[in-house]
Design brief:
The structure holds 2 protein chains of 2 kinds.
Chain A: H1 4-17, E1 22-38, E2 41-59, E3 62-68, H2 73-93, E4 107-110, H3 123-138, E5 144-162, E6 167-185, E7 188-199, H4 210-224, E8 228-229, E9 233-239, H5 241-253, H6 258-262, E10 283-286, E11 307-312, E12 315-316, H7 323-329, E13 337-338, E14 347-348, E15 352-355, H8 362-367, E16 371-376, E17 380-384, E18 389-393, E19 396-401, E20 404-410, E21 413-417, H9 418-421, E22 425-428, E23 433-441, E24 444-452, E25 455-463
Parallel strand pairs in A: 4-6, 8-20, 9-16, 15-24
Antiparallel strand pairs in A: 1-2, 1-5, 2-3, 5-6, 6-7, 9-25, 10-11, 10-15, 11-12, 13-14, 16-19, 17-18, 18-21, 19-20, 21-25, 22-25, 23-24
Helix pairs in contact in A: 1-2, 3-4
Chain B: H1 2-14, E1 19-35, E2 38-58, E3 61-69, H2 74-90, H3 115-118, H4 122-136, E4 142-160, E5 165-183, E6 186-196, H5 201-217, E7 222-223, E8 227-233, H6 235-250, H7 252-256, E9 277-279, E10 302-306, E11 309-310, H8 317-323, E12 331-332, E13 348-349, E14 353-356, H9 363-368, E15 372-380, E16 391-403, E17 406-412, E18 415-419, H10 420-425, E19 427-430, E20 435-439, E21 441-448, E22 451-459
Parallel strand pairs in B: 7-17, 8-15, 14-21
Antiparallel strand pairs in B: 1-2, 1-4, 2-3, 4-5, 5-6, 8-22, 9-10, 9-14, 10-11, 12-13, 15-16, 16-17, 16-18, 18-22, 19-22, 20-21
Helix pairs in contact in B: 1-2, 4-5
Chain lengths: 466, 460
């Protein structure tokens, strides 16, 4: 088995031999395991190794990219030739030359903290975790009609090498699990999801808590059986930490990704230093967050990744940058380039995006609401960064009446316009929690952490059917 | 690849598997991305891999294990076989008699390769992209044009221990344009795309033109009054609801586990009588057309819904074994949009080409039937829908206000909520011009004309 670091370094050397002015290579080898329970059946159990090599080059200041799936030096040259040929063609058509921001070169092997390996955890134990998720949820209450469980893990290495002398080997080891509890009473069916992701080596497996997550999912599903349709109108909203994390990810994070800025497809273009939201709002994107689901010491261009202040007391302070956007915007690269795998070109992505804590307790936030909605959990969201339109769904919700939580509500969603809603944040809680998720962009999916405290919005469009 | 599959099957049986199934795909893709009205980069990607499943049977019980490898080398294949067996042996056997495909009859040949796609080179891609950019950029209000075009060629190989063997190749051409327009501080954005097994540059230009026109028409949007309203859902909006709710509702595995809003409804009217739905895997040019599914079962056309009446669910071998029926053929390994990575996941139940039968009304005719409503070309947030209940809340995109049968202006700040069963039941009219859209997997598609739906809920 060829050494991955050596392959990366040989590849970038081959690229410069062919006339490339810059090249970066990503070499991956990962083993992944997926186990899925559908109701009472272990529906899927699959494992395999993904490995390959991708090289991106600048030739005549134009990009070319090519991949190969054989991790052998003999195959690299063909891929490099393809990338050069691609770049030569692009250079004949493009009007603007590509420039890259300068970064410091690094040579390091970054290990995932911890002991042991997830590969040493037996298949039986992983299946048992998934089975526990389902059984614990189903046994919670007679009205839990069904439950689905999912377990995923990924263990491996990625090498990033470039012609600036960077050569970093990054271990990646993580697991993720989720449980969906489905409750039924008569004609009424509701479902809720709990999920959890952990970054770590074999010892992280001891930190899983399938029973607790399954019970929580079941408990919420049973509560939802008494739920009524969420009102559809403009209302004050208090978001729980899970939802406030997704809110900042969708409403601000994507628009702060600088590839969209330089493509003139972001509502945040040209707004650095300008007030875009409430003074109570500060938000960060932090690749250095200890144990963060989206954390990584280096990005996939080999740049040392950092903590980026996106919003500070309502003022837009920065973007998430790759080297190209940094050069274009005359800023310092801050390590925001990520690629789903060797087969993808790095694009600007979030890592761990969260709202900073404020000073209010949950009770204080609720007290300020005469009639509104408390939204909890999330089924994800989506955004159009060019217009600043976003949407996301809560897993479940409750009515707030005179500061107290009352009726359970179903199918609550929240949508709006970024620059409007950020200015309506009028309360921020004290305690931040972080969650694991996956973010899709440019046909790539990456692990993205989201987080925040409870956040109150003075008024926004709440979607439902009532 | 064939040797690797034979090796896998042989070793699996030798090590004690009752049956073995080996699947492989090998894909080459040329992808061009353009941004800010210029060609940005070209990507030359190759991908290949083998997906294995092994079956252990003990009396009336079965246990299945699955694995994949990206290398056809002997050592890697052997490891994958052992991994799959290890999973099968670790799993508790299920009280069900599973079997892999047994039908050895040769499936119908369908022409799926267009040499113009297979042999497309960087200059072809760059030339087309330049024309797409120029087409979309004509109006001075167009601020930004981005997009991509993809040329993929994929070979699929199949072999199982019951003597089923198959091979086919297919091409995929896609072209998409995203446009942002700006005028007096207002921003309008739009996208449009095209996909086919064949190279159709004029269609690529058509979608570029359409995206630009739509972006301009989206300038100066205004809010709408909330309430129950009539809505024309465009093909892209319908694809979002289909991919995230309807397809799952039609899957026999979700039905059998009582997790589908259509469970127990075969033979019942579940939609307006104006709706008929079929899955047709033999249509020339359609991205989901193929001779056999990813369990090796020959594909065949299936009428899923006729005049509103649900006729069948979509099945794979497991769900057939559960029900004792004989209508398999909808097992697909989900690929990336460019047909890569098919080998990595286990087969799931998916349609090949799910088609809403077109009606007679032009879009203008549908609009003329709406006194007070909206027309939404697409939506965002479809993936947040609740698959179990069919409930959704989405934000209409590229959407317009209709008053007294005429499109008035672009709209903003509204949420569309509902349930898929209500959408199906309240379809008032079916348009006549279907649009073909890849959906969920690179080799699965959804085709529909616009539909006029009564009484959906708008909030804002």
């Amino acid at each position: 088995m060829e050494d991955l670091r050596e392959l990366g370094e040989v590849a970038v050397k081959l690229a410069t031999d062919q006339g490339a002015t810059y090249a970066d290579a990503r070499v991956d080898r990962h083993r992944s395991t997926l186990i899925r329970y559908l109701h009472d059946t272990l529906d899927q159990a699959n494992t395999g190794v993904t490995e390959g090599f991708g090289i991106r080059i600048l030739y005549n200041d134009a990009w070319g990219f090519a991949t190969a799936v054989q991790l052998e030096k003999t195959v690299l040259k063909k891929a490099v030739n393809s990338a050069v040929r691609a770049a030569k063609t692009v250079s004949r058509y493009q009007k603007e030359k590509i420039r890259l921001g300068k970064t410091r070169s690094s040579r390091e092997t970054v290990r995932t903290p911890g002991h042991g390996s997830l590969e040493d955890i037996s298949l039986e134990d992983k299946m048992k975790l998934c089975e526990n998720l389902v059984n614990e949820a189903r046994s919670y209450h007679k009205n839990i009609a069904s439950a689905n469980g999912l377990y995923l893990d990924s263990i491996g290495q990625r090498v990033v090498a470039n012609t600036d002398g960077t050569s970093v080997v990054m271990e990646d080891s993580r697991l993720y699990y989720s449980v969906r509890a489905i409750a039924r009473e008569g004609d009424k069916t509701v479902s809720t999801l709990e999920n959890h992701g952990l970054v770590g080596r074999g010892d992280v497996f001891a930190k899983v808590a399938p029973d607790r997550h399954a019970r929580t999912a079941a408990q919420r599903a049973i509560a939802c059986l008494d739920g009524k349709p969420c009102p559809s109108k403009r209302l004050p909203v208090v978001m729980d930490p899970k939802l406030s994390g997704v809110f900042i990810h969708e409403a601000v994070g994507h628009a702060a990704e600088a590839d969209g800025i330089i493509a003139k497809e972001s509502i945040l273009e040209g707004r650095i230093g300008k007030k875009i939201g409430s003074e109570l709002l500060s938000a960060y994107d932090d690749s250095t967050l200890h144990g963060g689901w989206g954390s990584s010491k280096y990005d996939d261009e080999g740049t040392l990744a950092g903590k980026r202040t996106i919003v500070e007391k309502g003022v837009l302070r920065g973007y998430i940058l790759n080297r190209e956007a940094a050069a274009k915007l005359r800023m310092e690269p801050n390590g925001g380039a990520r690629a789903e795998s060797y087969a993808h070109t790095p694009v600007v992505r979030m890592s761990n995006t969260y709202i900073a804590p404020g000073g209010q307790s949950l009770e204080e936030l609720m007290e300020g609401v005469d009639y509104g909605v408390y939204m909890k959990g999330t089924r994800g969201g989506q955004v159009d960064p060019s217009k600043g339109t976003f949407q996301f769904n809560a897993e479940d919700a409750q009515l707030i009446e005179k500061g107290e939580l009352t009726a359970v509500l179903l199918e609550a969603s929240l949508s709006g316009d970024t620059l409007t809603i950020l200015n309506t944040v009028d309360g921020v809680g004290r305690e931040v929690s972080h969650d694991a998720g996956f973010c899709g962009k440019a046909s790539q999916s990456v692990a993205a952490g989201t987080g925040g405290p409870h956040v109150r919005i003075k008024e926004t469009a709440v979607g439902g059917k009532a | 690849m064939e040797d690797a599959l034979k090796r896998a099957v042989s070793l699996g049986l030798k090590l004690g598997a009752t049956q073995v199934e080996a699947f492989a795909s090998s894909t080459n893709t040329l992808h061009l991305a353009f941004e800010k009205k210029q060609v940005k980069r070209i990507e030359d990607r190759s991908d290949r891999g083998i997906g294995l499943r092994v079956l252990l049977r003990n009396g009336a019980s079965s246990s299945m294990g699955s694995s994949f490898t990206m290398s056809p080398d002997g050592e890697a294949v052997d490891k994958a076989v052992r991994d799959a067996l290890s999973i099968a042996r670790t799993k508790k056997p299920e009280p069900i008699l599973l079997s892999f495909e047994e039908e050895t009859k040769k499936p119908t040949h369908i022409r799926l390769v267009d040499r113009k796609v297979k042999d497309a080179d960087e200059r072809t891609a760059a030339g087309l992209a330049s024309r797409m950019i120029r087409t979309a950029s004509k109006d001075s209000r167009i601020r930004s044009v981005s997009g991509d075009c993809t040329f993929s060629h994929c070979e699929t190989f199949f072999l199982n221990s019951l003597g089923v063997i198959g091979h086919y190749a297919g091409t995929l051409f896609t072209a998409t344009t995203w446009v942002t327009a700006r005028q007096s501080g207002s921003i309008g954005s739009a996208s449009d795309g095209f996909a086919s097994r064949t190279f159709q540059p004029e269609q690529a230009l058509t979608v570029s033109r359409s995206a630009a026109e739509t972006a301009i028409s989206q300038l100066k949007p205004r809010p709408v009054t909330p309430g129950k309203t009539d809505i024309i859902l465009g093909p892209e909006a319908l694809e979002a609801l289909s991919a995230n709710i309807l397809v799952f509702a039609l899957r026999a595995d979700f039905v059998q586990k009582k997790q589908s809003p259509l469970a127990g409804k075969v033979g019942q009217n579940v939609a307006s009588a104006s709706i008929s739905l079929e899955d047709n895997p033999s249509l020339p040019g359609y991205v989901g057309s193929k001779p056999f599914d990813d369990e090796g079962h020959p594909t065949e056309k299936r009428t899923v819904m006729e005049r509103g009446r649900l006729l069948v669910y979509l099945h794979n071998h497991r769900t057939i074994a559960q029900e004792g029926s004989d209508t398999a053929g909808n097992a697909l390994r989900v690929s990336s949009p460019d047909l890569t990575r098919k080998y990595a996941g286990e087969p799931q139940i998916l349609p090949h080409n799910l088609i809403v039968k077109p009606g007679r009304d032009s879009l203008d005719s549908l609009v003329s039937q709406v006194k007070d409503g909206i027309y939404a070309k697409s939506v965002i947030g479809g993936h947040t829908a609740n698959r179990v209940t069919g409930e959704f809340s989405v934000v209409p995109q590229m959407a317009y206000k209709i008053t007294n049968g005429k499109i008035e202006h672009a709209i903003k700040d509204t949420v569309l909520s509902g349930n898929i069963l209500d959408v199906l039941a309240n379809i008032k009219a079916v348009g006549r011009d279907p649009v073909h859209i890849p959906s969920i997997s690179g080799d699965s598609s959804f085709t529909a004309p616009p539909l006029l739906v009564e009484g959906l809920s708008l909030s804002g």
